[in-house]
Amino acid sequence: MTDLLKQLCLLDGISGDEGRVRDFIISQIKDCAEITVDPLGSIIAFCKGEQTPKNKVLVSAHMDEVGMIVTYINSDGTLKCDCVGGVDPKVVYGKRVRVGKNKILGVIAGTAIHNVPKADRSKAVPFDKLVIDIGCESRQEAEKLVRQGDSVSFVSDFTRFGDGFVKCKAIDDRAGCAIMIQLIKDRPKFDTYFTFVVQEEIGLRGATAASYTVNPDFAFVLEATTASDIPESENEKRVCELGGGAVVSYMDRHTIYDKQMYDLAFETAKENGIAVQTKSVIAGGNDAGAIHLSRGGVRTTAVSLPCRYLHSPSCVINKADMQSAYELVKLLLNRTYNK
């Protein structure tokens, strides 16, 4: 799945502008599923199995990534921007970006450090003090290339390093999309719904609509979740660790997960020798927050990949954790169809 993950991560698709990602995913699964695209732009894929199960089961991941959007073009040709999703301003200064449908290259710029008051030098530069330099010298020149409302995506190489590590932008949540594509290509034995949803990073919007349409009994959300397994973090502050396996959550800021399914995930992992862990801090959230409240309620489980430096141009995961998540979800599906 690593090559598939690379292709997905190198596509640009911030929230509300996921078209390139959607087109690629459809090209990968069109021969294996019945596909519809809902009005918000989410893919709803139905895989007809050999049998129709007792329960309607949904697997979901989001296509969008965090980024920025052009809000104004300055007289000197630089661009004002604001964040789309939870982007920490500390990770953007000096980074390369692509702007708009023409993929105009730019650099995130701000006041030179020697002109910043000493008291402020340790602080992140806020978005309203940043600009994007696209090499233009006037508003008129810049307007020929970009416009207000254009999407801004990080430029990031897909890099393999260390013992099974990979680095790129948008691993949150193209990793979940890659796992779902593989599950679809595996041709599930039972009827299964898969949704590749939009706009998770700005409020779980695609999942809200898509889960209402599918109306499942059970749902599995595939995600990437924050790992803080770096030297400065100890004990529970590490949250989860790369190489520790798939992450099955019991609670986050949006969801208390189905306790029987939580137990089933760990039982299944133990019985099949699959590495699995949980989060040691209640934080964050994902599309489960919308899905488990859909219609009359949905029994929901989140299976995530531990990811360092989330929401940055340099997300880092371990390929072994991705394999563990894939194997675990595949087995859990078979235990859920007729539960």
Describe the fold and architecture.
The chain has 339 residues and is an alpha+beta fold. It is built from 8 helices and 17 strands. The strands form 3 sheets. The chain has an 8-stranded mixed beta sheet, with helices on both faces. A 6-stranded antiparallel beta sheet has the order 5-4-9-6-7-8. A 3-stranded antiparallel beta sheet has the order 10-11-17. A hairpin with a 5-residue loop joins β1 (34-37) and β2. α4 (171-185) crosses α8 (319-336). The two termini are 29 Å apart.
Low-confidence runs: none
What gap, in angstroms, lies between the N and C termini? 29 Å
Helix-strand pattern:
HHEEEEEEEEHEEEHEHEEHEHEEH
Assign an overall shape: globular
How many helical elements?
A: 8
Q: State the helical fraction.
A: 10-25%
| Strand order in the largest sheet | 1-2-12-3-13-16-14-15
Our Rg estimate from Cα atoms comes to 21 Å
- Class per helix and strand makeup: alpha+beta
The biggest beta sheet, please? 8 strands, mixed
Kindly report the average pLDDT value: 95
What is the number of strand segments? Answer: 17
Percent in strands? 25-35%
